[in-house]
Structures are given as structure tokens and as C-alpha cells.
Amino acid sequence: MKRSIKVFAPATVANVVCGFDVLGFAVNEPGDEVIMRLTDKPGVSLLKITGDEGRLPLDPDKNTVSAIAKHYLQHIGQPNAGIEIELHKKMPIGSGLGSSSASTVAGLFAINTLFDNQLSNKELIPFAMKGEELACGYGHADNVAPALMGGFVLIRSYSPLDIISLPFPAELYAAIVYPEVDVPTKDARQMIRSKVYLKDAVTQWGNVAGLVSGLFMNDYELIGRSMTDVLVEPTRAILIPDFYVLRAMAMETGAIGFGISGSGPSVFALTRDKETAKKITQNLQQHLKSLSINSLAFVSEVNKKGPVVLD
Ligand code: HSE
């Protein structure tokens, strides 16, 4: 039995514009790392967190990684097992890239590996959803499911949970830009209308079906024209500096589609090649710089692996 492990789990782009809470995909970078050790002292302790600038709770009941590790131990009938955790944040918090999800998923994958993979990655999803509930008040799965399973994922239903891995074109790249303004998911969820008009719902489910069909058919045009959101984006766009200017720039530079990543403020574009994705991040970062806003950029294929053991 392994006594110590280091795991990386990836960031994710949730919603994919039209699929609020039901679509998401994983990227190769950024992501978070968790080191976990079995100890003889009963209980779960969180030894340290790095890279969070002191923003995350060190209380093991409040931090998602340790709190969910406790749930896992209870579930497998080992509530008194001894675990030590280190969380190394390698990605921005409150960025719309599934930061809490990457940490929780790295922790869950680590503990499940230490306890002989008693659950499948898919079976770990409800535990990770509890982590999202702790982090932002609602246990959505569109970050944790792709982070755990890799690839492009559809949450067909929450009750009962029904999660589908979708195919995607081999040459699909994401260009991600994170403007350094803080948008906590909790706040970004509270501002959305809870009631929608039927005509908007018709537009939205047409686009979700169109996007999923485009992924199956390798039809970039269809993917792109389905990346339209009439329900959530109009409200959340106001949190992102010059959102519509950024969109116009990305589309002019050759994006297939563009939108908010998760609850923002990160934005992303899908492209057919790495060069275009790079150009988009350069242009968007330059524009943000002209507004005196610092930003980070990532270019990635869709991540096919999900979490990986580093050590
Ligand atoms: N679907 C979630 C939301 C993702 O948009 O609030 C959060 O990253």
C-alpha cells in the first residue's frame, strides 16, 4: 500500500457558453497539486497551503480538500484513518477556471489511490460536488466531472446524477485569458435570474443540442454558432472588463466561438489550431493591458486524462 502521493488535477472550463451547469471540459494547464500522506495519528490534518496568498481556510472542516477527504473516509468505513494533506495552489482562485474543483479533485484522487481505488472516478463525482457546495453554496458538477474524468462532459441530469463523456474533434484548442479581477462564483451565481422566458429556453436548448451535435460530428462551424448564451452571459458579462470588445477581437482573430469560462472573469475561445489560440491570448492580453488590467493566459488542448499521479 502506497503511504504518500502527489496528484495534479486540471482546471476546467464550465458551461461552455450555452450549457450553464451542464457542460464542461478539462484543460492541461493550469491545475492544482495535493500531497497526501498516511499517518498513524488518527484524523485528517491540513498541514499547509501554498499559492493562495492566505485566502483559503486551514481549518480541516472548512477547506474543501480536507473536508471531502473526511467524507470519503467515512464512506469507506475508515473514519479514524490518519491523513496529512498539503495543498499547492498552482492556479488563481475565483478565476472561473474551477479552482476549488481542481483542489478537491486532486485530493479525492489522492485519497482514493491511497485506499486502493475503492471507487471509480465517476463514483468520486458526488463527493467532489459536496466540495463545490462548501466552496460556493451549490454542488454543481460541470467543473468536477470533467476534472475527474477528463475530456468534454455533459451532465444530462443532477437527480439522479447522469454524466456523459462526449467526443470532441482532435484539433480543438482552448485560448483562456484570466483578467485579474476577482469574481467569486457564489456572487456570480446570485446575480442570475432564476426564472427564464420560454422563448429564451428554446434558444438555449437548441444551442446546447447544437453544440453537442457539433462535437459528435466534428463540425467546427456548428460548435461555433451554438456557443451563444441568452440566459446567463448577458448578466455576467458586466463583471468582465470590455467583454464584448474581447469577444469581437477573439472572433476577428479566428476563434470558432468565445465566452465566459465558468462564472468568470476568465474568458475563453475555442480554435482549430494552437497558433490561432496563441494569437487570441496575445491580442486579448494586450487589450487588457491597455485598460491597466493584468492578466494570465493559457493555451491548451482538451485534457483527456483528468487527475494524474506525479509522485
Ligand atoms: N456552472 C457554474 C456557474 C460554474 O456558472 O456558476 C462555476 O465555475
Automatic annotation (TrEMBL):
Q: Which residues form the GHMP kinase C-terminal domain?
A: 217-289
Tell me the PROSITE patterns matching this sequence: GHMP_KINASES_ATP (PS00627)
Q: In which pathway does it act?
A: Amino-acid biosynthesis; L-threonine biosynthesis; L-threonine from L-aspartate: step 4/5
GO MF annotation list: ATP binding; homoserine kinase activity
Which segments constitute the GHMP kinase N-terminal domain? Answer: 63-151
Reaction equations catalysed: L-homoserine + ATP = O-phospho-L-homoserine + ADP + H(+)
Q: Where does ATP bind?
A: P92, I93, G94, S95, G96, L97, G98, S99, S100, S101, A102
Q: A Pfam family name for this chain?
A: GHMP_kinases_N
Question: Main EC class of this protein?
Answer: transferase
Task: Give Gene Ontology CC terms.
Answer: cytoplasm
* GO BP term, pick one: threonine biosynthetic process
Q: Which InterPro entries match?
A: GHMP_kinase_C_dom (IPR013750), GHMP_kinase_C_sf (IPR036554), GHMP_kinase_N_dom (IPR006204), GHMP_knse_ATP-bd_CS (IPR006203), Homoserine_kinase (IPR000870), Ribosomal_Su5_D2-typ_SF (IPR020568), Ribsml_uS5_D2-typ_fold_subgr (IPR014721)
The Enzyme Commission number assigned here is: 2.7.1.39
Family (UniProt)? Belongs to the GHMP kinase family. Homoserine kinase subfamily.
Please give the function described in this protein's UniProt entry: Catalyzes the ATP-dependent phosphorylation of L-homoserine to L-homoserine phosphate.
Name recorded for this polypeptide: Homoserine kinase
Q: What is the lineage of its organism?
A: Bacteria, Pseudomonadati, Bacteroidota, Sphingobacteriia, Sphingobacteriales
Chain's gene name: thrB
